[in-house]
Write a structure and sequence with these properties.
The structure holds two protein chains of two kinds.
Chain A lengths: L3 E4 L2 E5 L4 E7 L7 E6 L6 E6 L5 E4 L2 E5 L3 E6 L8 E8 L8 E3 L3 E6 L1
Parallel strand pairs in A: 2-11
Antiparallel strand pairs in A: 1-3, 3-8, 4-5, 4-9, 6-7, 7-8, 9-10, 9-11
Chain B lengths: L4 E3 L2 E4 L5 E6 L6 E8 L3 E9 L2 E5 L6 E5 L5 E5 L8 E8 L7 E2 L3 E5 L1
Parallel strand pairs in B: 2-11
Antiparallel strand pairs in B: 1-3, 3-8, 4-5, 4-9, 5-6, 7-8, 9-10, 9-11
The chains are: A mainly beta, B mainly beta.
Chain lengths: 112, 112
């Protein structure tokens, strides 16, 4: 059951080169979509939650948006310290406070 | 710092052995989740506890078990270890606010 699909798997950007990461989901009755950042060998770090189509959230150079079928994480003028794996996740529709289904992530590398 | 504490950080053991991973959730969080992350599988949900009670189970092997104690800390027990159990094991906790799960730094298990 592929609930969450992320693309691309890997992305290399030059510092300052803006781009977007995609997360598409198949679960109906969405109870939120989560974005996390994960550095190598560390735990996922929470970034954003989006609940309804049209919603947008921003944090520094990152902006997350949500439609009915997918979410985008836009990275504006990235810096090398933005290099990480970005994960999106959706909760199990059958329960509250339940498990998260994670995508495989997009590994972002920003070079100077 | 997410506020979720996992010990030990690294564990090296042999096939057939049994290990215990420990997790202390953020102060006040009643839900604890365990996830396994391997290179080929990504982040996979194992099990969830809520206030001492098992709430949800993922594809957790019968060799694996968990519990949550009255002080809300949780332990994941892995027995009859196999080479394929080598992975990062993460604990997350949530307190109900939008089901945001905060992750610990993980335990890296190496089975030799």
């Amino acid at each position: 059951e592929d609930q969450v699909t992320q693309s691309p798997e890997a992305l290399r950007l030059q510092e300052g080169e803006s781009s977007s990461l995609n997360c598409s989901y198949t679960v109906s009755g969405l109870r939120g979509l989560f974005w996390y950042r994960q550095d190598p060998g560390k735990g996922p770090e929470f970034l954003f939650t989006l609940y309804s189509a049209g919603e947008e959230k921003e944090k520094e150079r990152l902006k997350a948006t949500l439609t009915k079928k997918e979410s985008f994480l836009h990275i504006t003028a990235p810096k090398p310290e933005d290099s990480a794996t970005y994960l999106c996740a959706v909760p199990d529709r059958g329960s509250t406070l339940g498990r998260l289904y994670f995508g495989r992530g997009t590994q972002l590398t920003v070079w100077p | 710092d997410s506020g979720v504490t996992q010990t030990p950080k690294h564990l090296i053991t042999a096939t057939g052995q049994r290990v215990t991973l420990r997790c202390s959730p953020r102060s006040g969080d009643l839900s604890v989740y365990w996830y396994q992350q391997s290179l080929d599988q990504g982040l996979q949900f194992l099990i969830q506890y809520y206030n001492g009670e098992e709430r949800a189970k993922g594809n957790i092997l019968e060799r694996f078990s968990a519990q949550q104690f009255p002080d809300l800390h949780s332990e994941l027990n892995l027995s009859s270890l196999e080479l394929g159990d080598s992975a990062l094991y993460f604990c997350a906790s949530s307190g109900g606010q939008g089901n945001i799960q905060y992750f610990g730094a993980g335990t890296r298990l190496s089975v030799l």
